[in-house]
Design brief:
- Four copies of one chain form a homotetramer.
- Chain A has one domain: Chorismate synthase AroC (Chorismate synthase, AroC fold), CATH 3.60.150.
- Chain A is 25% helix and 21% strand.
- In chain A, a hairpin with a 5-residue loop joins β17 and β18.
- Chains in contact: A-B, A-C, A-D, B-C, B-D, C-D.
- Chains A and B meet through β1, α2, α5, β11 and α6 of A and β1, α2, α5, β11 and α6 of B.
């Protein structure tokens, strides 16, 4: 209820702060009988971890995950799975200068007003570092969804600041430091130059991320409030720095006519996917397509006007190690949140309606 | 858990279908001691009700609300408040032709796959008619928030299809059939002609709606998952036909630099509101600003390809009474959802942190 | 969260007060496809309703139930089922004398302290009349459990004040006004005389009720907190006037040795049922056996010392219509609560573990 | 939802198995600003830990607690508090003989049927060892309740098998190995002999535990389902081996008359406490009094009939280290559960009704 659990039936409760001894989570509700070891989880954490290129924070964290419970002889037992990730590279002194004042655009101000106390080391609880445990938990969700329904996830950065990245194929995503779905080397180089210039300026930039889930069973979603798209919006807007969420045609729907937007059906399936795989809050069996807007990092070296705790004017410059574009590492996080929403709805669906069919219908594969 | 309750502490559970005997809701968690009668609720329902202009559905529903419980001698008692609204103008035969096939872009297909059975009369449970009870419940939330914190809500349509509506003042919203915040009579006439043409074509159109909450206390929001903006996104995406949600700068954040996006602070308050009143998932005390994209109505007279329950190809034309732009009546609904999110977070905040200060700080009024 | 919903997946949210216009509930999460009409519900309400003998309250309420939603063409649709029961025989003046003071042993005192306001008419929300909607909801649960697993419920009064009622057979329960599982006419007459004497004295008495569920699937229960027996205890202790709950051997376990208490297993099943059908918080497939202690009615004609709202001493005598033994009508209520717990756990179980087998194993039928 | 979280607003999610690497919990919803360190928690864990006398299990566990998050500079921050307790003395081989068969009276049978897999080492998740994290969490709850309302907890064993322990004073509880509230050395010696004889017999015994909370604010409880006593019953019945729960007069209420049971009020407070501090599901401000029945340990050396996983008859003798009376260490656990219920209801109350008064009224101190 205090907001640190995600999901109702596959419930992930996270804990930890950026510079505490450890971060982690407890996953309650994982179905029993799933083969599971750390090796299933680590690759997803590695996709998200810091320090993998010069365009992200240089904090060195191996993000090695340890399973503390819920698995016996390599199989989930249906009891809570606890994941532990130790913080290895805390340098709290880097953040000393921001303990008494509030970074513009940062949670400093609101945490202090809400709780009357805050852990300023690396953003404390509000740090994007806290997405690591959910990425770990989602690795388990992805594995179960894959085995049960063949569901798969993919994502990419489709815009970096002013630079749009035309979609080519998800297969290119691992081949560049931006999760860009392109093989256009010149475009990648342009993005690298763009980021280098930003770092030099002591500034940061926003990004747009697209994620998709394929082979989703028909029927997931609990209208009329816990609609699948409502829960996806909740999950995505809850990721650090996200300011906008679209499903399917998103804001383009505003200027569409009904005769254009509504995806027709034929015996071979849907013709088009303006719906983004969700109608009436329930999955159609088509790909679920989601886009999110990520704001620029608020911790920048450029001096900015702010106030201190006593309300006095100050100038704030943030040193320390920060991602100049938090959007870069957001793709695996957005995929993770989508996976957590889907497994939760899969379990909710079978609670009320019984087990969903393993295969999606032939229609809906447009 | 099955999705028909909204809110965790101010919990609204709705029931009913478009053409059943009645719709309504139970509100659990309303603070005791609030003066309340039907007269506090009816005006909000009247803003949303059908039949108020030729541009919305012609179904005639007075939407008269009755309080069945939870109020004694004109004051809330802290026990559940049940609201009942009778359906007066059911014409189920209008919908007979869609019982066996699926309207493109409509929940017909997914409800049938999910539940194996569906009530086709007027869309059954998936009808936008079901937003009436939440508008009623939100009238109570609005009253409490106004009395407690001075919080107020406003909203308008900012785009109708291709027609953008420049914001002038919320005071003009009640003076035209579109909830447009403009006094530009020529623009309103253009919108009327646009809608008339659409109806003639048997087609429909999307819209963009903006809503705002003012005088919001600092500190509402339960990071790191039940962030205020995450719950707003959930609430908004759950409204019928919504495909996109933005908070503050929204998708414009993608191309913004950190030095531009992050709202600076001075002793006089925030300078700008790219944040939309939320930082780190917690309210800043500034206005909360939200935009949503509403897709065009899926029930249109234009013939469209679809399939029947047996998978055979059919052409679907939807007669009966429908809003040609569901966005028109969406403004009071979006305000209602925002109010429900805020009261829920206000109660959650005082659970954990004690009562919030009645006045927002001077800063944050930029 | 404010306590007026019961169950997590088969969620019953009730509303109403003893003397308001109506009482009722919304059931969210009922599986779709269940044949259902008012005729399935009314018989359970009739078992509980007042006025059926001289030993219970003489308030005349037909307790006629109306289904407002969630059923289409005689089948549940998976959407919320609203039940409405009108209050027909309110006589609020009967209770005028208790509006300003607190009946000893009654919720008057605590409701007033908690909420600062209370509806004194007939006990308002705290009246046992509010068990009617849950009995209605449980009729649906019972029907589904019966069809799905063959689960059946029975209950009886096993003690009325000092009078113990030896168990003979549940078939005798409907044949006497006390829900006694006996065919001993002399015993029944003794109970009638006992009740007549109590009424003459203007006093009331407690009772002990036993309920049982048969043909319960193995595996229901969500340890380690939402154990099946924990939720049963919650459900039972939440019934008006209940002060004690036992599962299986209950308090007799205190003086038992492990070699006596632990039910042995043979290939033919369990030998004994000290467990009451629950081990480790999970159903064994044996009968679930529960006993509850019901305190004597607090509203009695005998004058008693109390205070008024200003803290002044007063004498309180309660006139009006009251059950001299609330335990008499408690049997169908206790069965109802047990049924609601079981359906909720059946749905939770299939969320995490998939569908339970329809048949209980041969073992466990001891 | 899968049952491993306790509490709605002060939510404790536990993880771990008896013989895994570690056990622990995440506490979400702790109010910020509470001074807290491991030194506040360890003493409660020490009261519960094994190996403190020859009458409990000889497993050697220091149960040293480590706070991983949620505390900064010695003060709670309002973010999740993770507690970690390492398992030091696992000897899994001791339990090898029970991996393939089911101990009578034990969760072996039901876990295996529910999940299709189970961790047999020391009872896995069903072990009473898993009460350690909640005792740790409750130490935090107790501290907050003490500081906020002056609430205090106490408990004792009032019956060991056939031996009743007359209540003298809680001050004697720490002075004997049984949590007995007596200074009667002869009685303690009798209990020691009784336990020694049991161990020699390879058998076990039940117990009765009484717990009390003092200085409880008036008004806690969320009727009509989340009544304070309903949640207490849930909490207590959920403790390992509990088969019965009583509040106040409990089962004695059955034979009481209304004129005897209902606690009269005078301007000086309640006269008697048959209610056990709860009326209508809401705290009265009086002491909350609870009794529980604990069954005898199911793991005993005495050979017993059972079956193996294939349904074949076997004889089961359980060696390894077990408490011959799990009731002995149950007192701090029962206190802990009561504290967790009270803090949760205190937070729920202030969500809906605002902050409760720090002092309980003078009345209600009878």
């Amino acid at each position: 209820m205090s907001g640190n659990s995600f999901g109702k039936l596959f419930t992930v409760t996270t804990f930890g702060e950026s510079h505490g001894p450890a971060i982690g989570c407890v996953i309650d509700g994982c179905p029993p009988g799933l083969a599971l070891s750390e090796a299933d989880i680590q690759p997803e954490l590695d996709r998200r971890k810091p320090g993998t290129s010069r365009h992200v924070t240089q904090r060195q964290e191996p993000d090695t995950v340890q399973i503390l419970s819920g698995v016996y002889q390599g199989v989930t037992t249906g009891t809570p799975i606890a994941l532990l990730i130790k913080n290895e590279d805390q340098r709290s002194k880097d953040y000393g200068n921001i303990a008494e004042s509030f970074r513009p655009g940062h949670a400093d101000y609101t945490y202090w007003h809400k709780y009357g106390v805050r852990d300023p080391r690396g953003g404390g609880r509000s740090s994007a570092r806290l997405t690591a445990p959910v990425v770990g938990a989602a690795a388990i969700a992805k594995k179960w969804l894959k085995e049960k329904y063949g569901t798969e996830f993919a994502g990419c950065m489709s815009q970096l600041g002013e630079i749009e990245v035309p979609f080519e194929s998800f297969e290119h995503v691992p081949s560049n430091p931006f999760f860009a779905a392109t093989s256009d080397a010149a475009l990648i180089e342009r993005m690298e130059d763009y980021m280098d210039a930003l770092r030099k300026d002591g500034d940061s930039i926003g990004a747009r991320i697209d994620v998709v889930a394929r082979n989703v069973p028909v029927g997931l979603g609990q209208p009329i409030y816990d609609k699948l798209d409502a829960d996806i919006a909740y999950a995505m807007m809850g990721i650090n720095a996200v300011k906008g969420v679209e499903i399917g045609a998103g804001f383009d729907s505003v200027a569409q006519r009904g005769s254009e937007h509504g995806d027709e059906l034929t015996p071979q399936g849907f013709v088009g996917n303006n719906a983004g795989g969700v109608l009436g809050g329930i999955s159609t069996g088509q790909d679920i397509t989601v886009s999110i807007a990520i704001k620029p990092t608020s911790s920048i070296r450029t001096p900015r006007r702010s106030i201190d705790k006593d309300g006095n004017p100050v100038m704030v410059e943030t040193f320390g190690r920060h991602d100049p574009c938090v959007g870069i590492r957001a793709t695996p996080i957005a995929e993770a949140m989508l996976a957590l929403v889907l497994i939760d709805h899969a379990l909710m669906h079978r609670a009320q309606c019984g087990d969903v069919s393993v295969a999606t219908p032939d229609i809906g594969k447009a």
